[in-house]
Amino acid sequence: MKSLQSLASFFLIVGLVYYSFFSLMPQKGSPSSVEETKFSTERALIPLKEITKAPHYIGTKEHARVRNYLIGQLEELGLETQVQEGFVINPKWKSLDKPKNIIAQIKGSENGKSLLLLSHYDSALTPSYGASDAGSGVVTILETLRAYKASGKKPKNDIIVLFTDAEEVGLDGARLFVNNHPWAKNVGIALNFEARGSGGPSNMIVETNGGNKNLIKAFMEADVKFPVASSLMYSIYKMLPNDTDSTVLREGADIDGFFFAFIDDHYDYHTANDTYDNLDVNTLQHQGEYLLPLVHYFGDSDLNQLKSLDDHVYINLPFFKMVSYPFTWVFPMLLVAIVLFIGLIIYGLRKRVLTGNGVS
Ligand SMILES: [Zn+2]
Question: What is the Å distance from ligand 1's center to 232 Cα?
């Protein structure tokens, strides 16, 4: 009987561990036959194939072709589109760069702050085909906007699309937007899609100069299907030296945001292996599963309410999706856990289920 019990608990634990990985992200892409209002990886892959035919780092002919193609895609979606061009001093090389950002807008019905969707369209100089980094982000935005428009909704807030240029040479495009574009001053929140590999779950990371309390609350209310996020990951991210476009927005214009990136198969990152074929379709689906509900949510919510001084601890869990609690609870909760643990050991020793040797 005892061995049957331990066998059952063994399988239960294995099952739970398996489920906690399995439930992190979509297990398949979505065909183009899904409803028009849904995100489809098959539809998103069409523009991805087009922009990853060859490396397209800044200054190349292919870079210009990709830019023109993306402008065409945005115009096809009915968005007013512009190219922002200007000089930026590259802080790393002290050179004068001239990035060309692609910017488009869906006008909102009210005059609140705007929602910014961004990713970069230049590929790494390796040269790389830029399929995951950051073609996946660009097409996630295109396919999401298509699905959003198909729902017939008109947002309250302006939705701005920013495909930054020259991210790979020093975040120049984001710097140009923050320094010179009049729309930068009114951004309430930015959603940035990036890659540090070519597969696996996409992690949500918060970018803010203040506390994360209201941002996490809003993120949880948007109710994305596969949230992968934890304050621990955020602390690790903050210690890493590599900046992103989100860092530039936060430091240069105090723009809060969420940053979504995947890191599995990281050996493909910034290499000639960052190709259309190597991008994990499930990962692309995961990016879409984030963005579509967030566009619906932040398109209509009051973006003036996101700033906060308080920090929350948060983590994604199987069955619960995500939980969060004030940072100030951490110490009392730790005390409760210690008391419970000691209580359990005393109880075990008294009942003679546990022995001194067994515990140590
Ligand atoms: Zn990138």
Answer: 22
